[in-house]
Amino acid sequence: EVQLVQSGAEVKKPGESLKISCKGSGYSFTSYWIGWVRQMPGKGLEWMGIIYPGDSDTRYSPSFQGQVTISADKSISTAYLQWSSLKASDTAMYYCARRTGSHPDIWGQGTMVTVSS
Amino acid sequence: SYVLTQPPSVSVAPGQTARITCGGNNIGSKSVHWYQQKPGQAPVLVVYDDSDRPSGIPERFSGSNSGNTATLTISRVEAGDEADYYCQVWDSSSDQVVFGGGTKLTVL
B96, B98, B103, B104: best mutation site toward chain A, by most A Cβ within 10 Å? Predict the structure, then answer.
């Protein structure tokens, strides 16, 4: 079964760092782009950026460039999304998704990040 | 950047047909994909490449795309279809995935 499994919910304070993960299985992890999507509470889907685990080629949405870092470790079939200094406005659900052609087809279950003092 | 416009809400009675639109400049020249998201769940692909269905998606879900509007059609609507629906395209000029704002489908 093709699936993406994300790390668990996080509660952090403003200014703290964080790295969440997305592990792929059931397919060739290095052959598909993995993207990250933000969904703020009660809001829609926002594309953050994407990485190709085969060579770590990474593209960011202009809205998220410089705000987050996307990386991958192909040896363990895992992609990451990280923040160096969280803000309250980073509170959201974050999804990873495998891209096939021009669309995400397989989604992770989501990781809820809560940033509160 | 490319903008996709969806109506915030659509309401339909059970057994009727729901149509959710997605507007964009010359969207007919792009491949449009649709996702269903139920409360507390991750999005699920229901239509890809304008009108194809992934395995496991009922035939009641169909799509079309022409000119400046793409449409997701749900026939014989059931209570379980109540969800948020998002359209999506790949904007080649910016090399980015673009989502519409989402439409909440209410089954009356």
Answer: B96
DSSP H or E run through A34? strand A33-39
pLDDT of the residue at A42 = 95
How many degrees, rounded to 5, is the angle at CA A59 between CA A107 and CA B84? 35
Name B80's Cβ contacts closer than 8 Å, sequence gap at least 6.
none
Q: Whole-number mean pLDDT of chain A?
A: 96
Nearest to A102 among B86, B90, B101 (CB): B90
Which residue matches tokens 């339909």? B12
Q: Phi and psi for A30 in degrees, rounded to 5?
A: -80, -5
Confidence of residue B87 (pLDDT cuts 50, 70, 90): very high
Neighboring chain A residues of B1 at a CB cutoff of 8 Å: 62
Q: Parallel, antiparallel, or unpaired for β A103-107 and A92-100?
A: antiparallel
Break chain A down into helix, strand, coil percent, rounded to 5. Answer: 10, 55, 40
Residues in a beta bridge with A52: A57
Res B99 pLDDT > 90: yes
| DSSP 8-state symbol, B30 | S
**Angle A44-A113-B42 (CA atoms, 0-180°, nearest 5)?**
45
Report pLDDT for A117.
95
